[in-house]
Fold these 3 entries.
Entry 1:
Amino acid sequence: ESGGWTASDVDRYTSGRSALHAAAHTGSLANVRYLIETVGCDPDAHSIARSDYGKTAIFFAAVRCRGDVVEYLLDACPRLRVNVVNGAGQSVRSLCASHDIPERVR
């Protein structure tokens, strides 16, 4: 039950980040699941915050070593764009490798 919230309600950007970005960044797997499965937020939506360089939820999770969130996103979102490079020239794969996230991402 989403309580009547829609993805567009939740994904209204505050400082360029969505609720899904915040949940992935803080490692709140329960909130990430809720936002994707119940609300329907787009896991490939990118942040428009100036200092975020176009990061998606999986970028935020990888940068903060949130392996469980990375694993969930990979399992729940089979079409997730993991080969995308952000504005700083980093890929999800390179971030996972440098932050000791599970091998399957690399």
Entry 2:
Amino acid sequence: FDMLKRLGRASFRIGAGGLATGVVGAWALQLTNPELFEAGIRIGRCGQTAFVMSLSYGWARWGLNEKERSRATQEAHPRNAERLKALLFKNKGIYIKVGQILGTLDYLIPKAYVNEMRDCFDEAPESSWEDVRRTIENELGRPLEEVFSSFEQNPIASASLAQVHQAITHDGRKVAVKVQHEYLRRMARAEITIVESLMKTVRYFFPEFGFQWLVDEMKLNIPKELDFVQEANNADRCRRIL
């Protein structure tokens, strides 16, 4: 009965929080700021998925003894891993990066999650040419044509945080230009905070399913991943060493 009451509170608080933030917030912002509108949609998806996954685990374990709960939890992993992957694919960007991190943690998380999250390595969003051009010109402070004699509009590779284009400079050098997806730096901090809040809510009602370590990994590593200056310095250091 106590678990049932906790499930009821979890259902209301997680579901209502995700719905209120995602729907009402998105509606209020959709006309004035499309980026925040999209963020509201992603928040709503996070809340819905957190609610469904929490309910799935709690219901599977309800009324069982310790041994049976362990078995029920294992049986619930595959379907919840699929739910999490579906969320990450829909939200893209940083969320795909989260999936890629999870896909490397063979000995830390259930195998069902590792297997599903590895699909994130093949999921690569592409920024539009307009976004790419705007990002380059904002960063360099001048028109793209002043820097490059030619620039391929279609990327030769794309990943969760950036994509790569071929270009030729005015002195004839053929270069690879790595362009960060435009919205990431502005939205990264807020979206990490959102994920952290959801994980804290889930952990409050279901302490055994806490994933604070994942949030800590995101807070530590994603800002580093978005720092292309540091990445260039590291690449140059590797070049000198080799």
Entry 3:
Amino acid sequence: MEASGSEPEEERKSLGAEIAQQRQMKMMLEISIKELQKTAIEMEKRLGQVEEEERMNVMQGYNQQSKESLKQLLWKKEEERQSLQETLVDYEWRIAQEAKAYHKVINEKREVLNQLGETLDISTRQKKVKPATGPHDLERFKRKGRPSQEVDHEPTDSGGTWLPQLPAGALPRRAHGVTTQQQHRQQTTSEAQQGPTRRRPHGDQLPKLGKFQSPVIL
């Protein structure tokens, strides 16, 4: 029991000693802070005195100088001011140029992005279009792919009437109500569109026999 009772007493003593030590350190810190504050006030006073002394020395130096030297000094300061002003204007101009170049690059970037977007849209639409597989679709695709000069036009007469294309050498039949002149015009138009053709004799046309000739029988 005595051992157990002595332990709290020792802890209390150690804690009391630590508290006393902390209080002593606190007092020392407060004293140091006050001394530092006094030192700072003194330094500020001395700094003010030094600045005042320097100002007075400068004023005395100016007072001791002649008017000509003061004018030269003023002229020199004016040149420095103008040089600084020109440098400032130059920097402002450079900043403006850099801003223009930056905006130009941004606009070009937007145009490139827009063009890429349009290209992607076109490629997507082309992928969605069904390819032509049937014979009619292929023929229509070929007609669309040919130039306008190569498209075959149907023959018509001066009145816009459709004229059928006939093979070379064939005579068109005379339709009801069509005169010989119109029939000849249709034939001429058909031959002009077909181009020059070389007529060949038909195989069923045989040479005629003479009056006293007879076919030879083998």
